[in-house]
Amino acid sequence: MPTSATDRSARLNMRLTPEALATIREAAAAQQQDVRSFVLGAAMDQARFVLVTERVMRLTPTEAAQIDAALDAEPRVVPELAALIRAARTSQFTTRTQVPTR
Questions:
Q1: Residue 10 located in a structural domain
Q2: For residue 42, with 0-12 CB atoms within 10 Å meaning exposed, 13-18 middle and 19 or more buried, which class applies?
Q3: Is residue 5 part of a domain?
Q4: Where in the sequence is the domain holding 62, given as residue range(s)?
Q5: Number of domains in the chain
Q6: Which residues are CB-neighbours of 27 under 8 A, at least 6 positions away?
Q7: I need a labelling partner for 76 at 20 to 30 A (CA). Which of 40, 58, 66, 68 fits?
Q8: What is the pLDDT of residues 63-98, one digit of tens each?
């Protein structure tokens, strides 16, 4: 649930090694960010990636193979779809090139 930009009451604390902190500080400085912004940005990027992967890319091996096969197959023309596309293109072209009458 989205919250306003000013509602920053939630906290996250962690302990890490001095070496990890030094690496994070160096990376934050390289990006011209403070440590808090750098860590939050990196965590949010990873969180979004995980959520997209879990929500969108959840396929069984069989499903993945079916998608691969469909993408590798030669395209086939569906006559009804081709007719609709031709009609839409003709309609769009006619509409764009007509001179308005007054």
A1: no
A2: middle
A3: no
A4: 18-97
A5: 1
A6: 38
A7: 58
A8: 999 999 999 999 999 999 999 999 998 887 665 555
